[in-house]
From TrEMBL:
<keyword id="KW-0479">Metal-binding</keyword>
<feature type="region of interest" description="Disordered">
    <location>
        <begin position="1"/>
        <end position="29"/>
    </location>
</feature>
<keyword id="KW-0175">Coiled coil</keyword>
<feature type="domain" description="CCHC-type">
    <location>
        <begin position="442"/>
        <end position="456"/>
    </location>
</feature>
<keyword id="KW-0507">mRNA processing</keyword>
<dbReference type="GO" id="GO:0003676">
    <property type="term" value="F:nucleic acid binding"/>
</dbReference>
<feature type="compositionally biased region" description="Pro residues">
    <location>
        <begin position="14"/>
        <end position="27"/>
    </location>
</feature>
<feature type="coiled-coil region">
    <location>
        <begin position="149"/>
        <end position="176"/>
    </location>
</feature>
<protein>
    <recommendedName>
        <fullName>CCHC-type domain-containing protein</fullName>
    </recommendedName>
</protein>
<dbReference type="InterPro" id="IPR036875">
    <property type="entry name" value="Znf_CCHC_sf"/>
</dbReference>
<keyword id="KW-0863">Zinc-finger</keyword>
<keyword id="KW-0862">Zinc</keyword>
<dbReference type="GO" id="GO:0006397">
    <property type="term" value="P:mRNA processing"/>
</dbReference>
<dbReference type="InterPro" id="IPR001878">
    <property type="entry name" value="Znf_CCHC"/>
</dbReference>
<dbReference type="GO" id="GO:0008270">
    <property type="term" value="F:zinc ion binding"/>
</dbReference>
């Protein structure tokens, strides 16, 4: 607003005052006034030329205090208030100050109103417009990213499929190579055994040839009458052991003869055959009375030689010959003996473990009646095959494994040796077998040889892979190796090339010479063949983590 349009306030040009009935504006109440405060409604109702918004606009326009074409915004009203303070110098200072105070407050509110208006306009109009433009701008790029992601997913699926196919082909090749190597070893073993048997046959025939030569030289001499010789008695363990044999075979036969004379009685679970406080002499007496009670006309001669009572309650009875022991193992005799000692007592059968190689994995060997069907297929006596199980747990097989090894328990030693020698037919397939070779026991807790984890006195676990103080199944670095026995990082504790393991095997086989034999030793000479020494096989991969 220009000051030139402001009405002049000089005394010379002002017209003389005219009497008027206009009521002066109400006095503003301040602290200095003595009048009582009026309400806003009372003040608005006072007589004055300005009594409505329309009259207010006309008055301001008439007095040239505002622009006619400009709306009455807060900014405009602030400007009017500042110009009102300049109308007359006679206006009291408190009035001017009060008007200026109101003007400044309105100016502050005007700035806030402008900011709110701009903010609302930005949020209402500008932001949606920017969002739409941004989405339209990045939409093609997002589409490209999604396309590339989908392409990478398909590529990864193809790569994973190719990896699985390659791994399966590699495993099949390794399995075929392993099978071929095993069969070559078996063929070499058979050749070695055949040569050994030929040498034994030649050695055993030499005295007979010499006697035949002597008799041929004396053939012209008239024969003298002689008494007919009795037929030869069947060979037994005792007769074979009495003859001269190599030390390992002699010791193995002695152990087999002892085993053939032994009868083992197992108590019921958590119980004992006799009370714990029973004296050893009383136990022997009661056993002799029980065996004497079941004697009949077919009972062979024989008696109890010694009795051993184990801490778990089992009892092993050694008879003075194998004939009486065999008689006790018959079904009728064992039933009579258990009736004498207690119905819950179990007479444990002798069993001979045989490993069946490359048995098809589709066979349901756990099915009831599986062993009876195998016995019928091979013409074997019923219940000669006691049990069968897979050697490797099912959860450790590869997904495409087709053949695996099983452990077959045979109750008849002759049948077990025939299976090792000739194999066995299962589901019209020929399956070859070998004797289960025992190895030293290694503790799964401390990794030492000679005891099991349940009897271990160590306070801490020792890892069989890295040698750390934790279980092998929880090893954080199974690829690192440390032997707890040799104290070296060259191999793990479970390594078959471990010197401590080899030494334990030598000690074990020295104590158990039958472990070096191909068959379970019997009076038959062909079962005395010793297995050839094989080179140490390479270590298998480390055991998988749990």
């Amino acid at each position: 607003m220009s000051t030139s349009r402001r009405r002049s306030t000089s005394a010379g040009t002002r017209p003389p005052p005219q009497p008027s009935n206009i009521t002066p504006p109400p006095q503003i109440n301040t602290r200095r006034t003595a009048k009582s405060n009026l309400t806003q409604e009372s003040i608005e109702a006072l007589t004055n030329v300005v009594n409505s918004p329309e009259s207010a606009e006309k008055f301001l326009i008439k007095k040239l205090l505002c622009h006619e074409d400009e709306p009455f915004t807060l900014t405009h009203l602030v400007s009017i208030l500042f110009h009102i303070t300049q109308i007359s110098s006679a206006t009291s200072l408190p009035v001017v100050t009060a008007i200026r105070a109101v003007a400044f407050l309105l100016k502050k509110h005007a700035v806030c109103e402008i900011a709110d208006t701009v903010s609302q306009q930005i949020s209402t109009d500008l932001i949606p417009h920017l969002v739409d433009n941004f989405i339209r701008a990045i939409a093609p790029q997002i589409a490209k990213v999604l396309s590339v992601s989908e392409f990478l997913d398909k590529t990864l699926e193809k790569v994973e499929l190719e990896r699985k196919i390659t791994e399966r082909e590699r495993e099949e090749k390794n399995e075929n190579a392993f099978i071929a190597a095993e069969r070559l070893e078996e063929a070499a073993d058979l050749c070695f055994v055949s040569l050994a048997e030929c040498n034994k046959a030649i050695t055993s025939l030499t005295p007979a040839m010499e006697q035949a030569t002597v008799k041929f030289n004396l053939i012209q001499t008239p024969p003298t009458p002689s008494q007919p010789s009795p037929p030869p008695a069947p060979a037994t363990f005792s007769s074979i052991v009495a003859s001269y044999l190599p030390p390992p075979v002699d010791k193995a036969l002695s152990r087999a003869a002892l085993r053939a004379r032994q009868i083992t009685l197992n108590p019921p679970p958590g119980g004992h055959i006799f009370p714990k406080e029973t004296l050893h002499a009383d136990i022997v007496k009661k056993l002799r009375e029980a065996i004497s009670t079941i004697h009949n006309a077919t009972t062979p001669a024989g008696a109890i030689r010694c009795v051993h009572v184990f801490p778990n309650g089992s009892i092993t009875i050694e008879m003075d010959n194998e004939n009486i022991a065999t008689w006790i193992r018959t079904t009728s005799t064992r039933t009579a003996l258990t009736n004498q000692l207690g119905q819950s007592i179990v007479l444990r059968d002798l069993s001979y473990p045989v490993i069946l190689q490359y048995l098809p994995t589709y066979l349901q060997i756990e099915r009831e009646g599986f062993l009876r069907a195998v016995e019928e297929e091979n013409g074997i006596d019923t219940h000669s095959l006691d049990s069968i199980r897979w050697i490797k747990p099912l959860n450790r097989r590869s997904h495409d494994q087709r053949k695996a090894f099983t452990l077959l328990q045979v109750t008849d030693i002759i049948i077990a040796n025939n299976i090792i020698k000739d194999g066995i037919c299962i589901d019209t397939q020929k399956v070859y077998a070998r004797k289960n070779k025992k190895e030293p026991i290694r503790c799964a807790k401390c990794q030492k040889f000679g005891h099991m984890a349940r009897n271990c006195s160590s306070l801490e676990d020792t890892c069989g892979a890295c040698g750390g103080k934790h279980r092998t199944s929880l090893c954080p670095s199974p690829q690192s190796t440390h032997c707890a026995n040799c104290k070296t990082n060259q191999h793990a504790s479970w390594s078959r090339s471990c010197p401590a393991f080899k030494e334990s095997c030598d000690i074990f086989e020295e104590k158990n010479p039958e472990n070096q034999m191909i068959y379970f030793p019997t009076p038959a000479i062909w079962t005395h063949a010793m297995a050839p020494t094989r080179p140490t096989k390479p270590d298998p991969p480390p055991p998988p983590q749990a």
